[in-house]
């Protein structure tokens, strides 16, 4: 159901930029995960990016995903267990592509809107990129705790946009 406010109200800036991140995500050719990210300075859009193979290199839709298996520690009801997870490592993550295609000077004090909570590597890079705020929508539990601790130390505002409804044409579910 579409929230009532969307019927007649103009989109607020958070919604506006997150919608653009979701539209960027539709460019991704990895069937496992579609992630989009945008860089915003004030109200100005400075860049958009999505997860994908390097330019000119076969992507997941052409050569299939590049799957690795990893064990991940999960805590459920106080009990720890190792769970085997599959990941596609063919793509450069959206946040990393965003950093590759924007300038350091433009990023100083900027905000990143990203469809998914950043993984540890992306968070670590964003922490050193000049951005002062990261807004995400879908939760990514794996690295959540250490990412939040890092943002705390760095004084970077780190928040989930909720409630939020992605644009219908961009909200296709992906495996986690
Ligand atoms: Zn893939
Ligand atoms: Zn990442």
UniProtKB/TrEMBL annotation:
Tagged with keyword Disulfide bond: no
Cofactors named for this entry: Zn(2+)
Location of the CMP/dCMP-type deaminase domain: 12-158
Keyword Cytoplasm: no
Pfam families tied to this protein: dCMP_cyt_deam_1 (PF00383)
InterPro entries: APOBEC/CMP_deaminase_Zn-bd, CMP_dCMP_dom, Cytidine_deaminase-like, dCMP_deaminase, dCMP_deaminase-rel, Deoxycytidylate_deaminase_dom
Keywords from the named record: Hydrolase, Metal-binding, Zinc
Origin superkingdom: Bacteria
Gene3D superfamilies registered for this protein in UniProt: Cytidine Deaminase, domain 2 (3.40.140.10)
Family as reported in the entry's similarity comment: Belongs to the cytidine and deoxycytidylate deaminase family.
Record's protein name: dCMP deaminase family protein
The organism of origin for this protein: Paenibacillus artemisiicola
């Amino acid at each position: 159901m579409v929230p009532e406010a969307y019927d007649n109200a103009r989109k607020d800036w958070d919604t506006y930029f997150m919608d653009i991140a979701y539209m960027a995500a539709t460019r991704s050719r990895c069937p496992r995960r579609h992630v989009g990210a945008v860089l915003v300075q004030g109200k100005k859009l400075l860049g958009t990016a999505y997860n994908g193979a390097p330019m000119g290199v076969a992507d997941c839709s052409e050569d299939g995903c590049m799957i690795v298996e990893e064990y991940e520690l999960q805590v459920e009801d106080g009990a720890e267990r190792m769970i085997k997870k599959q990941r596609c490592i063919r793509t450069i993550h959206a946040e990393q592509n965003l950093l590759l295609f924007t300038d350091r000077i433009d990023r100083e004090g900027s905000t990143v809107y990203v469809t998914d909570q950043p993984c540890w590597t992306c968070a670590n890079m964003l922490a050193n990129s000049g951005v002062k705020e990261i807004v995400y929508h879908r939760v990514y539990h794996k690295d959540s705790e250490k990412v939040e601790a890092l943002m705390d130390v760095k004084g970077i505002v780190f928040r989930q946009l909720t409630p939020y409804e992605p644009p219908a044409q961009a909200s296709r579910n992906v495996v986690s």
